[in-house]
Amino acid sequence: MNTVIALEDIHKVYHTGGVDVHAVRGVSAEIKTGEFVAIMGASGSGKSTLMNIIGCLDRPTSGRYLLDGTDASRLERDELADIRNRKIGFIFQGFNLLARTSAVENVELPMLYGHAHLRGREQRARALQALETVSLVERAHHHPSQLSGGQQQRVAIARALVNQPALLLADEPTGNLDSQTSIEIMGVFQKLNNQGITLVMVTHELDIARYTRRNLIMRDGRIVSDTTVAERLDAERELARLRDAQQAVQLSL
Amino acid sequence: MRIVATLSIAVRALRRNLMRTLLTTLGMIIGVAAVIATVSLGYGAKAQIEAQIASIGQNVVLVWSGSMSRTGARSGWGGAGTLTIEDAEAIQREITGVVQISPEIQSSTQVAAGNQNWYTRIQGEGSEYFDIRQWPVIIGSAFSGQDVRNANKVAVIGQTIADQLFPGEDPLGRVLRVKNVPFKVVGVLSPKGLSVQGQDQDDLVVIPFTSSMKRVQRVTTLRNFMVQAAKPSLLFSVQQQIIDLLRQRHHITPEKDDDFTVRTQQEIAEVVTAQSRTMTVLLGAIAGVSLVVGGIGIMNIMLVSVTERTREIGIRMAIGARARDILLQFLTEAVTLSAIGGLAGIGLGIGFSRMLAASKGWPTLIPTEWLLYAFSFSAAVGVFFGFYPARKASRLDPIEALRYE
After folding, report:
1. Cβ separation of B314 and A96 shorter than 8 Å?
2. pLDDT tens across A90-142, in order?
């Protein structure tokens, strides 16, 4: 199994208002191809900072970070942008789609900044293919405002997938969704993971973390627990159970 | 990122706030239209003046008595009469490249014919005058060299004189009196109309300069000569030769200033067009200021746009946009804004100058290269004033930008 993420003694110190804030204090971890990892922790535990470093949005103050074999800890801004474009697919809590831009155009966006100069038609084909993966082709020309939260997050997932990255990175992907839609999104993640895609997700919801394969728990800038999920939940089964329960309520009425 | 994609993003962003875009562009539109209208007026005036200067004649060198000395004006051009008939003959005889010369002497006085009278310009000229000025006599004929040598009392009149003194009659052979000296009308000049200054060019009486000197003005010196050179390339050489010859003839020692002035037609044209150019530059500068104001408007709106779209910038950066992609995107937007304004301004400016030409009768002319200048300049305004906001956008921190509400 290849190592996608290798963190070696990562530190991150912020200087704000003359005070040093030690957000990450020596994190070392390895994540291999095909893993589905949840990073958990209370707010202020340093999980978001770590996430930004893994996502190449930020650089560690010290330590080494290898992403898919590339040392990403000492790269310049533009080189980081390039890595984000080619190797990472981002999924955010607030979906972060461009407003007044159709779903398929949102999905095309990463190809706009890619090195491979694809023709317009090819870009469109790839974007539609990515939307197909998240079962949203029929909504391709809807604008985000015409889509539900779950659908918007699926568009965001399609956008993250379109450049075929080595890693999908999700920051509280279910934070703005109700419980059923959250499970649906987890179902999409599990399906992608079963196809061999590596997923790293930050969440503070314990039940959501149970859909992953491995949980890292952070506290005060350190990883305090690294466990394999024993009784992994299956999104399909949970959804079916939820539907039954809803039907039961309706029947009883 | 490709140009087409960048441009389409820019156009889409601009269409999103159509009203704002239009108002911002308006600054550019007004600026460019003002520049185009000013330039068209300036060039129109210039073209008219040049046509006027050309109507002096072909390859003409003018010699006036009196001079502008290095120490200041000693005597005005044409003031003191220092030129003589012998000077004119010497120029004709000794200077190579001279085709012909017409000595001139002018006065303004009352002329009368029958019971009509009229105040007009009396021009004493050589018989070569009509040829040098390329001013044909349409009725009758010009006076001859013989008439000049004999100081005959003959006159060629302008159309206005014909109309005023001999209304509804054939003026040929009729007599008009200049200071009670009778002159016989031998010809009528073709009408020329008004000059740029609104002066009636046909309001004149041309008589032999000898007759004017002896019979009208009673002077022995001349005010000026009109000299025609063989071809344009000889103008300068003729000018220099005349200066040398006249200095020698007037016994002017090297340390003294000329008591005459020699100017070529080109020099006169330059002086006159320089005046109109100064005016154009002045008006153009004012118009240019409005372009700068338009540019500031663009900068202002782009700064607002960058702030509004901080989150969008964050998203684009997160998915791999480099700093220069963002810079280019906002710069393209600013340039699109200013270029559209430039194009619309050119259209409006052309329309405005046509309107001036039609309603006020002012001559207007828009040189094609100025359309190009105006467009390029408006695009450059976009680059200049769009650069700071675009750079600000490109330097945003992706994490901060994503968090921006």
Report:
1. yes
2. 999 889 999 889 999 999 999 988 877 778 889 999 999 999 999 999 999 99
Q: Do B320 and A85 touch (CB under 8 A)?
A: yes
CA-based nearest distance B274→chain A, Å: 54
What residues of chain B lie within 8 A of the CB of A114, using their CB? 320
Q: CA separation (Å) from A69 to A87, A253, B61?
A: 11, 58, 86
Lowest mean pLDDT among B197-206, B297-306, B311-320: B197-206
CA distance linking residue B52 with residue B46, whole number of Å: 10
Scanning every residue of chain B, which has its alpha carbon at the shortest distance from the alpha carbon of A52? B399
Residue A36 pLDDT exceeds 70: yes
Chain B residues whose CB is inside 8 A of the A55 CB are 318
Domains and CATH numbers, chain A: 33-52+76-252 (3.40.50.300)
Q: In chain A, which ranges are E strands?
A: 3-16, 19-32, 36-41, 62-67, 70-71, 88-91, 167-171, 199-202, 214-219, 222-228
Residue B246 near residue B64, CB atoms below 8 Å: no
Asked if A57 is an interface residue toward chain B (Cβ–Cβ < 8 A), one would say yes
Task: Give the ipTM.
Answer: 0.92
- The number of angstroms, rounded, from the C-alpha of B52 to the middle of its chain's C-alpha atoms is 10
Give the neighbor-by-neighbor strand order of the sheet with A62-67: A19-32, A3-16, A62-67, A70-71
Q: Where are the domains of chain B?
A: 3-51+271-403, 83-249
Rounded to a whole number, what is the distance in Å from the CA of B278 to chain A's nearest CA? 51
- The chain-wide mean pLDDT, for chain A, equals 91
